[in-house]
Amino acid sequence: MLVIEVTNAREVVRQRIGRLGSRLIGKVVDAEAQVEKALMQEMENAFREFGIEARIYSVDGPAMVGRSHLEIPIQVREERVVEL
Hints:
The chain has one domain (9-82). The chain contains two helices and four strands; from the N terminus they run ααββββ. It has helices at 9-22, 31-50, and strands spanning 54-60, 63-65, 69-71, 75-82. A two-stranded antiparallel ribbon has the order 1-4. Strand 2 (63-65) and strand 3 form a beta hairpin. The chain is globular.
């Protein structure tokens, strides 16, 4: 199982939507959800190309605590099932 934490979602969205749009981050735009959605689409495409079947979840809540612990209060934002 892989766990990927996007650590610069706000910066990625800021680069994509510019200075004016960056003021909306946190008010109208959920930076993490937007970046995760785009990343999920890219992963889904890559998995299909490699013949990998998977379930990819975008969840809200888990947080890394140091290098050895993961806090897991989860709320699933989106789910994709990749099938061949």
